[in-house]
Protein backbone atom coordinates (compact mmCIF):
# COMPACT_ATOMS: atom_id res chain seq x y z
CA UNK A 1 0.00 0.00 0.00
CA UNK A 2 2.83 2.39 0.87
CA UNK A 3 4.61 1.76 -2.43
CA UNK A 4 1.40 2.39 -4.40
CA UNK A 5 0.78 5.73 -2.71
CA UNK A 6 4.42 6.71 -3.24
CA UNK A 7 4.11 6.02 -6.96
CA UNK A 8 0.98 8.20 -7.14
CA UNK A 9 2.83 11.10 -5.44
CA UNK A 10 5.74 10.78 -7.91
CA UNK A 11 3.41 10.82 -10.93
CA UNK A 12 1.54 13.82 -9.55
CA UNK A 13 4.80 15.69 -9.03
CA UNK A 14 5.98 14.91 -12.57
CA UNK A 15 2.69 16.19 -13.96
CA UNK A 16 3.02 19.47 -12.00
CA UNK A 17 6.58 19.93 -13.29
CA UNK A 18 5.37 19.42 -16.86
CA UNK A 19 2.68 22.08 -16.38
CA UNK A 20 5.17 24.51 -14.80
CA UNK A 21 7.66 23.93 -17.63
CA UNK A 22 5.06 25.25 -20.06
CA UNK A 23 5.42 29.00 -20.32
CA UNK A 24 4.50 31.79 -22.65
CA UNK A 25 7.88 31.48 -24.32
CA UNK A 26 6.90 28.11 -25.86
CA UNK A 27 4.19 29.92 -27.81
CA UNK A 28 6.19 32.53 -29.68
CA UNK A 29 3.27 34.07 -31.58
CA UNK A 30 1.29 34.65 -28.39
CA UNK A 31 4.36 36.23 -26.78
CA UNK A 32 4.57 38.76 -29.62
CA UNK A 33 0.94 39.70 -29.24
CA UNK A 34 1.18 40.16 -25.46
CA UNK A 35 4.57 41.83 -25.07
CA UNK A 36 2.99 45.25 -24.51
CA UNK A 37 0.44 44.09 -21.93
CA UNK A 38 1.39 42.33 -18.66
CA UNK A 39 -2.20 41.57 -17.82
CA UNK A 40 -2.66 39.64 -21.08
CA UNK A 41 0.55 37.74 -20.35
CA UNK A 42 -0.76 36.50 -16.99
CA UNK A 43 -4.09 35.47 -18.49
CA UNK A 44 -2.43 33.51 -21.28
CA UNK A 45 -0.05 31.79 -18.83
CA UNK A 46 -3.09 30.54 -16.91
CA UNK A 47 -4.65 29.22 -20.13
CA UNK A 48 -1.39 27.46 -21.09
CA UNK A 49 -1.22 25.64 -17.74
CA UNK A 50 -4.90 24.72 -17.48
CA UNK A 51 -5.95 24.33 -21.13
CA UNK A 52 -2.92 23.68 -23.35
CA UNK A 53 -5.09 22.65 -26.33
CA UNK A 54 -6.78 26.04 -26.30
CA UNK A 55 -3.38 27.72 -26.15
CA UNK A 56 -2.27 25.84 -29.26
CA UNK A 57 -5.33 27.06 -31.14
CA UNK A 58 -4.70 30.66 -30.04
CA UNK A 59 -1.07 30.36 -31.10
CA UNK A 60 -2.11 29.23 -34.60
CA UNK A 61 -4.58 32.12 -34.79
CA UNK A 62 -1.91 34.57 -33.70
CA UNK A 63 0.33 33.28 -36.48
CA UNK A 64 -2.39 34.18 -38.98
CA UNK A 65 -2.78 37.61 -37.41
CA UNK A 66 0.98 38.21 -37.71
CA UNK A 67 0.98 37.26 -41.38
CA UNK A 68 -2.05 39.44 -42.04
CA UNK A 69 -0.50 42.51 -40.33
CA UNK A 70 2.63 42.23 -42.43
CA UNK A 71 0.56 42.03 -45.60
CA UNK A 72 -1.47 45.05 -44.57
CA UNK A 73 1.70 47.10 -44.02
CA UNK A 74 3.00 46.13 -47.44
CA UNK A 75 -0.33 47.02 -49.02
CA UNK A 76 -0.29 50.47 -47.40
CA UNK A 77 3.24 51.07 -48.68
CA UNK A 78 2.24 49.94 -52.17
CA UNK A 79 -0.67 52.38 -52.26
CA UNK A 80 1.70 55.11 -51.14
CA UNK A 81 4.05 54.15 -54.02
CA UNK A 82 7.08 53.60 -51.82
CA UNK A 83 7.89 49.97 -52.38
CA UNK A 84 6.92 46.80 -54.39
CA UNK A 85 3.79 44.98 -53.26
CA UNK A 86 3.51 41.74 -51.35
CA UNK A 87 7.16 41.24 -50.60
CA UNK A 88 8.26 38.55 -48.17
CA UNK A 89 7.64 39.58 -44.59
CA UNK A 90 9.90 39.02 -41.62
CA UNK A 91 8.86 38.73 -38.01
CA UNK A 92 10.58 42.02 -37.13
CA UNK A 93 8.13 43.91 -39.38
CA UNK A 94 5.20 43.04 -37.11
CA UNK A 95 4.63 45.97 -34.75
CA UNK A 96 1.06 46.63 -33.65
CA UNK A 97 -1.36 43.68 -33.22
CA UNK A 98 -4.73 44.51 -34.78
CA UNK A 99 -7.36 41.88 -35.58
CA UNK A 100 -8.44 41.65 -39.26
CA UNK A 101 -11.86 42.51 -40.63
CA UNK A 102 -13.80 40.33 -43.05
CA UNK A 103 -13.52 42.75 -45.97
CA UNK A 104 -9.71 42.92 -45.70
CA UNK A 105 -9.47 39.14 -45.63
CA UNK A 106 -11.36 39.06 -48.90
CA UNK A 107 -8.88 41.53 -50.36
CA UNK A 108 -6.00 39.27 -49.38
CA UNK A 109 -7.66 36.34 -51.12
CA UNK A 110 -8.10 38.41 -54.27
CA UNK A 111 -4.39 39.20 -54.32
CA UNK A 112 -3.56 35.51 -53.92
CA UNK A 113 -5.87 34.48 -56.76
CA UNK A 114 -4.81 37.24 -59.18
CA UNK A 115 -3.32 35.49 -62.26
CA UNK A 116 -1.17 38.59 -63.09
CA UNK A 117 2.11 39.22 -61.34
CA UNK A 118 1.42 42.04 -58.91
CA UNK A 119 4.94 43.45 -59.05
CA UNK A 120 5.07 43.65 -62.84
CA UNK A 121 1.59 45.14 -62.89
CA UNK A 122 2.56 48.00 -60.56
CA UNK A 123 5.76 48.75 -62.54
CA UNK A 124 3.89 48.84 -65.86
CA UNK A 125 1.28 51.18 -64.41
CA UNK A 126 3.96 53.52 -63.11
CA UNK A 127 5.74 53.66 -66.46
CA UNK A 128 2.54 54.14 -68.48
CA UNK A 129 1.02 56.83 -66.36
CA UNK A 130 4.03 58.54 -64.73
CA UNK A 131 1.99 59.60 -61.78
CA UNK A 132 3.03 62.62 -59.78
CA UNK A 133 2.21 62.16 -56.15
CA UNK A 134 1.21 65.04 -53.96
CA UNK A 135 3.18 65.82 -50.84
CA UNK A 136 0.19 64.82 -48.73
CA UNK A 137 0.29 61.35 -50.31
CA UNK A 138 -2.65 61.74 -52.71
CA UNK A 139 -2.96 62.64 -56.40
CA UNK A 140 -4.72 65.94 -57.12
CA UNK A 141 -7.76 65.66 -59.36
CA UNK A 142 -6.22 67.90 -62.01
CA UNK A 143 -3.13 65.68 -62.41
CA UNK A 144 -5.03 62.40 -62.67
CA UNK A 145 -4.75 60.53 -65.97
CA UNK A 146 -6.69 57.66 -67.49
CA UNK A 147 -5.35 54.22 -66.68
CA UNK A 148 -5.20 51.76 -69.58
CA UNK A 149 -6.50 48.39 -68.47
CA UNK A 150 -4.30 45.54 -69.66
CA UNK A 151 -6.05 43.23 -72.16
CA UNK A 152 -6.56 39.71 -70.79
CA UNK A 153 -6.50 36.51 -72.82
CA UNK A 154 -10.31 36.22 -72.84
CA UNK A 155 -11.69 36.78 -76.38
CA UNK A 156 -14.19 39.61 -76.91
CA UNK A 157 -17.85 38.62 -76.70
CA UNK A 158 -19.45 38.50 -80.16
CA UNK A 159 -23.14 39.43 -80.14
CA UNK A 160 -25.39 38.97 -83.13
CA UNK A 161 -27.86 41.76 -82.58
CA UNK A 162 -29.92 40.84 -85.61
CA UNK A 163 -30.86 37.42 -84.16
CA UNK A 164 -33.85 37.53 -81.84
CA UNK A 165 -33.35 35.88 -78.47
CA UNK A 166 -35.98 33.27 -77.43
CA UNK A 167 -38.60 34.53 -75.03
CA UNK A 168 -38.36 33.15 -71.53
CA UNK A 169 -41.41 31.36 -70.18
CA UNK A 170 -41.99 32.91 -66.79
CA UNK A 171 -44.12 30.74 -64.51
CA UNK A 172 -46.74 32.69 -62.66
CA UNK A 173 -46.48 32.10 -58.96
CA UNK A 174 -49.60 31.91 -56.90
CA UNK A 175 -49.57 33.33 -53.42
CA UNK A 176 -51.66 30.42 -52.14
CA UNK A 177 -49.09 27.76 -51.28
CA UNK A 178 -49.68 24.67 -49.12
CA UNK A 179 -47.23 22.01 -47.93
CA UNK A 180 -47.61 18.25 -47.96
CA UNK A 181 -45.54 15.42 -46.52
CA UNK A 182 -45.70 11.88 -47.93
CA UNK A 183 -44.22 9.18 -45.69
CA UNK A 184 -42.07 6.36 -47.09
CA UNK A 185 -43.39 2.97 -48.15
CA UNK A 186 -46.50 1.62 -49.90
CA UNK A 187 -45.75 3.46 -53.15
CA UNK A 188 -45.71 6.92 -51.61
CA UNK A 189 -44.07 8.14 -54.82
CA UNK A 190 -47.41 7.66 -56.60
CA UNK A 191 -49.16 9.92 -54.08
CA UNK A 192 -46.44 12.55 -54.65
CA UNK A 193 -46.89 12.23 -58.41
CA UNK A 194 -50.61 12.90 -58.12
CA UNK A 195 -50.14 15.89 -55.81
CA UNK A 196 -47.46 17.30 -58.14
CA UNK A 197 -50.26 17.89 -60.64
CA UNK A 198 -51.37 20.55 -58.15
CA UNK A 199 -47.88 22.08 -57.88
CA UNK A 200 -49.22 25.59 -58.46
CA UNK A 201 -50.75 25.35 -55.00
CA UNK A 202 -48.83 22.53 -53.30
CA UNK A 203 -45.19 21.81 -52.54
CA UNK A 204 -43.51 18.82 -50.88
CA UNK A 205 -41.69 19.31 -47.57
CA UNK A 206 -39.62 16.94 -45.38
CA UNK A 207 -40.99 15.38 -42.20
CA UNK A 208 -39.01 17.81 -40.00
CA UNK A 209 -40.74 20.82 -41.56
CA UNK A 210 -43.03 22.41 -39.00
CA UNK A 211 -45.86 23.73 -41.17
CA UNK A 212 -47.47 20.79 -42.98
CA UNK A 213 -51.05 21.04 -44.22
CA UNK A 214 -51.55 17.51 -45.58
CA UNK A 215 -49.85 14.40 -44.20
CA UNK A 216 -50.05 10.97 -45.86
CA UNK A 217 -48.39 8.09 -43.96
CA UNK A 218 -48.55 4.31 -43.75
CA UNK A 219 -49.49 4.47 -40.08
CA UNK A 220 -51.30 6.94 -37.84
CA UNK A 221 -48.55 6.76 -35.19
CA UNK A 222 -47.12 10.21 -34.49
CA UNK A 223 -50.20 12.06 -35.72
CA UNK A 224 -51.53 14.67 -33.31
CA UNK A 225 -55.30 14.53 -33.90
CA UNK A 226 -55.80 17.58 -31.66
CA UNK A 227 -54.54 19.64 -34.60
CA UNK A 228 -57.59 18.64 -36.66
CA UNK A 229 -59.72 21.59 -35.60
CA UNK A 230 -62.06 23.83 -37.58
CA UNK A 231 -60.56 26.98 -39.04
CA UNK A 232 -61.84 29.76 -41.30
CA UNK A 233 -58.30 30.31 -42.59
CA UNK A 234 -57.19 27.82 -45.25
CA UNK A 235 -53.57 28.12 -44.14
CA UNK A 236 -54.16 26.89 -40.58
CA UNK A 237 -56.02 23.74 -41.62
CA UNK A 238 -54.37 20.33 -41.25
CA UNK A 239 -55.51 17.07 -42.89
CA UNK A 240 -54.42 13.47 -42.17
CA UNK A 241 -55.09 10.31 -44.16
CA UNK A 242 -56.36 8.52 -41.01
CA UNK A 243 -59.26 8.84 -38.63
CA UNK A 244 -58.53 8.65 -34.93
CA UNK A 245 -60.66 5.56 -34.22
CA UNK A 246 -60.28 3.72 -37.52
CA UNK A 247 -59.13 0.58 -35.67
CA UNK A 248 -62.73 -0.01 -34.63
CA UNK A 249 -63.14 -1.67 -38.03
CA UNK A 250 -59.61 -1.93 -39.49
CA UNK A 251 -58.11 -4.21 -36.84
CA UNK A 252 -59.20 -7.84 -37.07
CA UNK A 253 -60.46 -7.82 -33.50
CA UNK A 254 -62.01 -4.35 -33.79
CA UNK A 255 -64.18 -5.33 -36.75
CA UNK A 256 -65.54 -8.39 -34.90
CA UNK A 257 -66.17 -6.43 -31.70
CA UNK A 258 -67.97 -3.60 -33.55
CA UNK A 259 -70.28 -6.00 -35.38
CA UNK A 260 -70.98 -8.07 -32.26
CA UNK A 261 -71.84 -4.93 -30.29
CA UNK A 262 -73.92 -3.52 -33.14
CA UNK A 263 -76.03 -6.65 -33.67
CA UNK A 264 -75.78 -8.08 -30.14
CA UNK A 265 -76.53 -11.34 -31.89
CA UNK A 266 -74.21 -14.22 -32.81
CA UNK A 267 -76.24 -15.46 -35.78
CA UNK A 268 -76.44 -12.08 -37.56
CA UNK A 269 -72.81 -11.15 -36.91
CA UNK A 270 -71.38 -14.39 -38.22
CA UNK A 271 -73.59 -14.20 -41.28
CA UNK A 272 -71.47 -11.22 -42.40
CA UNK A 273 -68.02 -12.44 -41.37
CA UNK A 274 -66.88 -16.04 -40.76
CA UNK A 275 -67.00 -17.20 -37.12
CA UNK A 276 -64.41 -15.40 -34.98
CA UNK A 277 -62.99 -15.87 -31.48
CA UNK A 278 -60.99 -12.99 -29.96
CA UNK A 279 -58.22 -13.87 -27.50
CA UNK A 280 -56.57 -10.82 -25.93
CA UNK A 281 -53.90 -11.71 -23.38
CA UNK A 282 -53.79 -8.07 -22.26
CA UNK A 283 -57.25 -8.43 -20.69
CA UNK A 284 -58.06 -9.95 -17.32
CA UNK A 285 -60.47 -12.61 -18.60
CA UNK A 286 -58.38 -14.08 -21.41
CA UNK A 287 -58.70 -17.52 -19.81
CA UNK A 288 -62.46 -17.34 -20.37
CA UNK A 289 -61.88 -16.52 -24.07
CA UNK A 290 -59.48 -19.45 -24.47
CA UNK A 291 -61.94 -21.84 -22.82
CA UNK A 292 -64.77 -20.56 -25.01
CA UNK A 293 -62.81 -21.35 -28.18
CA UNK A 294 -61.54 -24.76 -27.09
CA UNK A 295 -65.04 -25.90 -26.10
CA UNK A 296 -66.51 -24.84 -29.43
CA UNK A 297 -63.58 -26.38 -31.33
CA UNK A 298 -63.96 -29.75 -29.63
CA UNK A 299 -67.78 -29.86 -29.77
CA UNK A 300 -67.92 -29.12 -33.51
CA UNK A 301 -64.91 -31.09 -34.68
CA UNK A 302 -66.11 -33.58 -37.35
CA UNK A 303 -62.80 -35.47 -37.15
CA UNK A 304 -62.66 -37.07 -33.71
CA UNK A 305 -59.02 -38.16 -33.98
CA UNK A 306 -57.66 -34.86 -35.33
CA UNK A 307 -56.25 -33.65 -32.00
CA UNK A 308 -55.08 -35.39 -28.86
CA UNK A 309 -55.48 -32.18 -26.81
CA UNK A 310 -58.81 -30.95 -25.54
CA UNK A 311 -57.61 -27.69 -24.01
CA UNK A 312 -54.96 -24.97 -24.41
CA UNK A 313 -52.38 -24.58 -21.65
CA UNK A 314 -50.96 -21.08 -21.17
CA UNK A 315 -49.11 -19.80 -18.11
CA UNK A 316 -49.21 -16.15 -19.20
CA UNK A 317 -49.49 -13.15 -16.90
CA UNK A 318 -53.07 -12.24 -15.89
CA UNK A 319 -53.65 -8.52 -16.41
CA UNK A 320 -55.99 -6.24 -14.48
CA UNK A 321 -57.30 -4.51 -17.62
CA UNK A 322 -61.05 -4.98 -18.16
CA UNK A 323 -62.19 -6.88 -21.25
CA UNK A 324 -64.31 -5.50 -24.09
CA UNK A 325 -67.99 -6.08 -23.49
CA UNK A 326 -68.75 -8.58 -26.25
CA UNK A 327 -71.82 -10.78 -26.14
CA UNK A 328 -71.01 -14.37 -27.10
CA UNK A 329 -74.31 -15.67 -25.70
CA UNK A 330 -75.59 -18.52 -27.79
CA UNK A 331 -72.17 -19.60 -29.06
CA UNK A 332 -72.64 -23.09 -27.65
CA UNK A 333 -75.70 -23.71 -29.81
CA UNK A 334 -74.46 -21.83 -32.89
CA UNK A 335 -74.30 -23.92 -36.05
CA UNK A 336 -71.74 -22.99 -38.65
CA UNK A 337 -72.79 -22.61 -42.27
CA UNK A 338 -72.06 -25.64 -44.40
CA UNK A 339 -69.42 -23.95 -46.60
CA UNK A 340 -67.21 -23.40 -43.53
CA UNK A 341 -66.77 -27.11 -42.91
CA UNK A 342 -65.68 -30.18 -44.85
CA UNK A 343 -65.88 -33.86 -43.97
CA UNK A 344 -62.17 -34.40 -44.64
CA UNK A 345 -60.63 -31.38 -42.88
CA UNK A 346 -61.23 -28.98 -40.00
CA UNK A 347 -59.21 -25.83 -40.75
CA UNK A 348 -58.93 -22.59 -38.78
CA UNK A 349 -56.91 -19.39 -39.20
CA UNK A 350 -54.74 -17.73 -36.53
CA UNK A 351 -54.27 -13.98 -37.16
CA UNK A 352 -52.40 -11.39 -35.06
CA UNK A 353 -55.03 -8.71 -34.40
CA UNK A 354 -53.16 -5.63 -35.71
CA UNK A 355 -50.92 -7.02 -38.44
CA UNK A 356 -51.55 -6.75 -42.15
CA UNK A 357 -50.27 -7.95 -45.55
CA UNK A 358 -50.71 -11.57 -44.46
CA UNK A 359 -48.02 -11.34 -41.77
CA UNK A 360 -48.42 -13.88 -38.98
CA UNK A 361 -51.45 -15.59 -40.58
CA UNK A 362 -51.36 -19.39 -40.19
CA UNK A 363 -53.66 -22.23 -41.19
CA UNK A 364 -54.03 -24.92 -38.47
CA UNK A 365 -56.30 -27.84 -37.64
CA UNK A 366 -55.09 -29.02 -34.21
CA UNK A 367 -54.96 -27.44 -30.77
CA UNK A 368 -51.29 -28.43 -30.51
CA UNK A 369 -50.48 -26.25 -33.52
CA UNK A 370 -52.32 -23.17 -32.33
CA UNK A 371 -50.86 -23.45 -28.82
CA UNK A 372 -47.32 -23.57 -30.20
CA UNK A 373 -47.99 -20.61 -32.55
CA UNK A 374 -49.53 -18.40 -29.86
CA UNK A 375 -46.66 -19.07 -27.44
CA UNK A 376 -44.07 -18.25 -30.10
CA UNK A 377 -45.72 -14.90 -30.89
CA UNK A 378 -46.43 -14.07 -27.26
CA UNK A 379 -42.75 -14.42 -26.35
CA UNK A 380 -41.59 -12.80 -29.59
CA UNK A 381 -41.11 -14.83 -32.75
CA UNK A 382 -38.04 -13.31 -34.37
CA UNK A 383 -38.57 -9.55 -34.16
CA UNK A 384 -42.31 -9.85 -33.66
CA UNK A 385 -44.33 -9.94 -30.46
CA UNK A 386 -48.08 -10.15 -30.19
CA UNK A 387 -50.52 -10.38 -27.26
CA UNK A 388 -53.85 -10.22 -29.12
CA UNK A 389 -55.12 -12.77 -31.65
CA UNK A 390 -58.13 -13.58 -33.76
CA UNK A 391 -59.01 -17.23 -34.40
CA UNK A 392 -61.32 -17.43 -37.41
CA UNK A 393 -63.03 -20.36 -39.09
CA UNK A 394 -61.57 -21.08 -42.51
CA UNK A 395 -63.99 -21.16 -45.49
CA UNK A 396 -63.27 -24.71 -46.56
CA UNK A 397 -65.52 -24.65 -49.63
CA UNK A 398 -64.73 -21.39 -51.48
CA UNK A 399 -65.71 -20.56 -55.05
CA UNK A 400 -62.63 -21.19 -57.24
CA UNK A 401 -61.36 -19.68 -60.49
CA UNK A 402 -59.70 -22.35 -62.60
CA UNK A 403 -59.22 -24.47 -59.48
CA UNK A 404 -57.50 -21.62 -57.60
CA UNK A 405 -58.59 -19.49 -54.65
CA UNK A 406 -59.35 -15.75 -55.04
CA UNK A 407 -60.71 -12.74 -53.16
CA UNK A 408 -62.08 -9.30 -54.08
CA UNK A 409 -60.43 -5.99 -53.10
CA UNK A 410 -62.71 -2.92 -53.02
CA UNK A 411 -61.84 0.67 -52.05
CA UNK A 412 -63.95 2.81 -49.73
CA UNK A 413 -63.36 6.53 -49.10
CA UNK A 414 -64.43 8.49 -46.02
CA UNK A 415 -64.21 12.27 -46.47
CA UNK A 416 -63.78 15.18 -44.05
CA UNK A 417 -67.59 15.57 -44.04
CA UNK A 418 -67.92 11.89 -42.94
CA UNK A 419 -69.51 10.96 -46.27
CA UNK A 420 -68.46 7.53 -47.47
CA UNK A 421 -68.02 6.41 -51.06
CA UNK A 422 -67.38 3.14 -52.90
CA UNK A 423 -65.02 3.18 -55.90
CA UNK A 424 -66.88 1.95 -58.97
CA UNK A 425 -64.17 -0.53 -59.93
CA UNK A 426 -62.52 -3.30 -57.88
CA UNK A 427 -60.11 -6.08 -58.72
CA UNK A 428 -59.68 -9.81 -58.10
CA UNK A 429 -56.58 -11.20 -56.34
CA UNK A 430 -55.80 -14.80 -57.20
CA UNK A 431 -53.56 -17.54 -55.87
CA UNK A 432 -51.07 -19.00 -58.30
CA UNK A 433 -51.34 -22.51 -56.80
CA UNK A 434 -54.11 -25.08 -57.15
CA UNK A 435 -56.41 -25.13 -54.14
CA UNK A 436 -56.10 -28.02 -51.67
CA UNK A 437 -57.22 -28.55 -48.08
CA UNK A 438 -54.56 -31.20 -47.58
CA UNK A 439 -51.72 -28.72 -48.00
CA UNK A 440 -51.30 -25.79 -45.56
CA UNK A 441 -48.94 -23.88 -47.86
CA UNK A 442 -49.68 -20.15 -47.40
CA UNK A 443 -49.37 -19.55 -51.18
CA UNK A 444 -52.49 -21.71 -51.63
CA UNK A 445 -54.64 -20.08 -48.95
CA UNK A 446 -53.50 -16.39 -48.82
CA UNK A 447 -54.15 -14.26 -51.91
CA UNK A 448 -52.55 -11.01 -50.66
CA UNK A 449 -50.17 -9.55 -53.22
CA UNK A 450 -47.56 -9.14 -50.46
CA UNK A 451 -47.63 -12.94 -50.08
CA UNK A 452 -48.18 -14.07 -53.67
CA UNK A 453 -45.37 -11.95 -55.17
CA UNK A 454 -42.86 -14.24 -53.41
CA UNK A 455 -44.33 -17.43 -54.92
CA UNK A 456 -42.46 -19.20 -57.72
CA UNK A 457 -45.46 -19.16 -60.08
CA UNK A 458 -46.38 -15.50 -59.46
CA UNK A 459 -47.87 -13.98 -62.61
CA UNK A 460 -48.10 -17.33 -64.42
CA UNK A 461 -51.89 -17.15 -64.98
CA UNK A 462 -52.64 -13.41 -64.65
CA UNK A 463 -50.54 -10.25 -64.76
CA UNK A 464 -49.62 -9.71 -61.10
CA UNK A 465 -52.16 -12.41 -60.10
CA UNK A 466 -54.91 -9.81 -60.63
CA UNK A 467 -58.09 -9.62 -62.71
CA UNK A 468 -60.50 -6.84 -63.58
CA UNK A 469 -64.16 -7.36 -62.74
CA UNK A 470 -64.89 -7.67 -66.46
CA UNK A 471 -62.39 -10.51 -66.94
CA UNK A 472 -63.59 -12.08 -63.70
CA UNK A 473 -67.13 -12.26 -65.07
CA UNK A 474 -65.86 -13.80 -68.31
CA UNK A 475 -64.05 -16.55 -66.41
CA UNK A 476 -67.16 -17.25 -64.35
CA UNK A 477 -69.15 -17.60 -67.56
CA UNK A 478 -66.48 -19.85 -69.08
CA UNK A 479 -66.58 -22.26 -66.13
CA UNK A 480 -70.40 -22.13 -66.23
CA UNK A 481 -70.84 -20.48 -62.83
CA UNK A 482 -74.24 -18.82 -62.94
CA UNK A 483 -73.42 -15.67 -61.04
CA UNK A 484 -73.72 -12.08 -62.30
CA UNK A 485 -71.34 -10.27 -59.99
CA UNK A 486 -72.46 -6.74 -60.90
CA UNK A 487 -76.13 -7.56 -60.26
CA UNK A 488 -75.79 -9.95 -57.30
CA UNK A 489 -72.42 -9.38 -55.65
CA UNK A 490 -71.93 -5.60 -56.00
CA UNK A 491 -75.20 -4.61 -54.24
CA UNK A 492 -74.28 -6.97 -51.39
CA UNK A 493 -70.88 -5.25 -51.07
CA UNK A 494 -72.62 -1.87 -50.73
CA UNK A 495 -74.82 -3.27 -47.95
CA UNK A 496 -71.82 -4.62 -46.03
CA UNK A 497 -69.93 -1.30 -46.36
CA UNK A 498 -72.94 0.59 -44.99
CA UNK A 499 -73.27 -1.93 -42.16
CA UNK A 500 -69.64 -1.72 -41.02
CA UNK A 501 -69.56 2.09 -41.08
CA UNK A 502 -72.84 2.21 -39.14
CA UNK A 503 -71.56 -0.20 -36.50
CA UNK A 504 -69.10 2.29 -34.96
CA UNK A 505 -67.94 5.90 -34.89
CA UNK A 506 -64.56 6.58 -36.46
CA UNK A 507 -64.66 10.27 -35.51
CA UNK A 508 -66.00 10.21 -31.94
CA UNK A 509 -64.42 13.54 -31.04
CA UNK A 510 -65.69 15.36 -34.14
CA UNK A 511 -62.26 16.21 -35.51
CA UNK A 512 -62.17 18.27 -38.70
CA UNK A 513 -60.41 17.59 -42.00
CA UNK A 514 -59.72 13.88 -41.67
CA UNK A 515 -59.95 11.51 -44.63
CA UNK A 516 -59.17 7.84 -45.21
CA UNK A 517 -59.08 5.28 -48.01
CA UNK A 518 -60.00 1.79 -46.76
CA UNK A 519 -59.49 -1.58 -48.43
CA UNK A 520 -62.37 -4.06 -48.07
CA UNK A 521 -61.63 -7.75 -48.77
CA UNK A 522 -64.44 -10.16 -49.70
CA UNK A 523 -64.69 -13.85 -50.57
CA UNK A 524 -67.41 -15.89 -52.28
CA UNK A 525 -68.12 -19.47 -51.25
CA UNK A 526 -69.31 -22.27 -53.52
CA UNK A 527 -72.95 -21.45 -52.58
CA UNK A 528 -72.29 -17.92 -54.03
CA UNK A 529 -72.56 -16.28 -50.59
CA UNK A 530 -70.44 -13.14 -50.12
CA UNK A 531 -68.28 -12.97 -46.96
CA UNK A 532 -66.45 -9.95 -45.54
CA UNK A 533 -62.95 -11.06 -44.55
CA UNK A 534 -61.35 -7.86 -43.24
CA UNK A 535 -61.00 -4.08 -43.63
CA UNK A 536 -57.54 -2.57 -44.23
CA UNK A 537 -56.58 0.84 -42.83
CA UNK A 538 -53.80 1.39 -45.36
CA UNK A 539 -54.59 -0.70 -48.46
CA UNK A 540 -51.75 -1.56 -50.80
CA UNK A 541 -51.39 0.97 -53.65
CA UNK A 542 -48.44 -0.73 -55.33
CA UNK A 543 -48.85 -0.71 -59.12
CA UNK A 544 -48.03 -4.40 -59.44
CA UNK A 545 -49.92 -4.97 -62.71
CA UNK A 546 -51.13 -3.03 -65.75
CA UNK A 547 -54.63 -3.13 -64.29
CA UNK A 548 -53.55 -1.39 -61.07
CA UNK A 549 -51.44 1.11 -63.02
CA UNK A 550 -54.71 2.22 -64.57
CA UNK A 551 -57.02 2.02 -61.53
CA UNK A 552 -54.99 3.24 -58.52
CA UNK A 553 -53.85 6.66 -59.85
CA UNK A 554 -57.42 7.49 -60.89
CA UNK A 555 -58.74 6.22 -57.55
CA UNK A 556 -56.38 8.48 -55.57
CA UNK A 557 -56.80 11.51 -57.83
CA UNK A 558 -60.59 11.37 -57.64
CA UNK A 559 -60.33 10.86 -53.86
CA UNK A 560 -58.21 14.02 -53.51
CA UNK A 561 -60.79 15.97 -55.53
CA UNK A 562 -63.37 15.11 -52.88
CA UNK A 563 -61.09 15.77 -49.89
CA UNK A 564 -57.83 17.72 -50.24
CA UNK A 565 -59.06 20.02 -53.01
CA UNK A 566 -62.31 20.85 -51.22
CA UNK A 567 -60.59 21.67 -47.92
CA UNK A 568 -57.64 23.74 -49.17
CA UNK A 569 -58.49 24.99 -52.68
CA UNK A 570 -62.30 25.02 -52.83
CA UNK A 571 -62.43 27.72 -55.53
CA UNK A 572 -60.06 25.98 -57.93
CA UNK A 573 -61.33 23.62 -60.62
CA UNK A 574 -58.48 21.16 -61.12
CA UNK A 575 -60.57 19.17 -63.57
CA UNK A 576 -59.82 21.67 -66.35
CA UNK A 577 -56.11 22.01 -65.57
CA UNK A 578 -54.81 18.50 -64.92
CA UNK A 579 -54.03 15.64 -67.29
CA UNK A 580 -56.48 12.79 -66.78
CA UNK A 581 -55.86 9.28 -65.48
CA UNK A 582 -57.83 7.32 -68.01
CA UNK A 583 -59.84 4.23 -67.06
CA UNK A 584 -61.52 2.08 -69.68
CA UNK A 585 -65.27 2.62 -70.09
CA UNK A 586 -65.29 5.72 -67.83
CA UNK A 587 -65.40 9.36 -68.89
CA UNK A 588 -62.42 11.53 -67.91
CA UNK A 589 -64.64 14.16 -66.30
CA UNK A 590 -66.49 11.58 -64.19
CA UNK A 591 -65.56 11.07 -60.55
CA UNK A 592 -65.44 7.30 -60.06
CA UNK A 593 -66.38 7.42 -56.37
CA UNK A 594 -70.06 6.60 -55.74
CA UNK A 595 -71.51 8.11 -52.57
CA UNK A 596 -73.31 5.59 -50.35
CA UNK A 597 -74.17 7.55 -47.22
CA UNK A 598 -72.96 9.38 -44.12
CA UNK A 599 -71.10 7.80 -41.20
CA UNK A 600 -72.88 7.81 -37.85
TrEMBL record:
Highest taxon listed in the record's lineage: Eukaryota
InterPro entries the UniProt entry points to: TTL/TTLL_fam
Coiled coil: none
Pfam families: TTL
Region (Disordered): 1-22
Protein name as catalogued: Tubulin-tyrosine ligase family protein
Amino acid sequence: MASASKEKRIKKKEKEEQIQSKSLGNFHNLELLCKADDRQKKTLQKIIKQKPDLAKSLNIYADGVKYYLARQQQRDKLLAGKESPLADVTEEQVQIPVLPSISNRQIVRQFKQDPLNAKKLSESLEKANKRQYHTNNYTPFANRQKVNIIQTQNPPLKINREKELPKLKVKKQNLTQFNYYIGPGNNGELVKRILQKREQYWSAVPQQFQYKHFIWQQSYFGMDFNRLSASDSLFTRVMYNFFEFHKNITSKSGLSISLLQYYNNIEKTFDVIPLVFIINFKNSDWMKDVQQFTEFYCNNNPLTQTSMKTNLDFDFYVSNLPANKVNYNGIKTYKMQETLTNKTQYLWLLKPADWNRGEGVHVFNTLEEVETLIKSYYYGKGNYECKEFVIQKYIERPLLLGGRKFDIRCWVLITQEMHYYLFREAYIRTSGTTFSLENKDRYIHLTNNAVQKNAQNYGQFEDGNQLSLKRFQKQLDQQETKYDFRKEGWPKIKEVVKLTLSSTRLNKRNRKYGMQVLGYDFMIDENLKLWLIEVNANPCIEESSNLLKMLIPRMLDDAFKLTVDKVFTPDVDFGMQQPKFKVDEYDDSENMWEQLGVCG
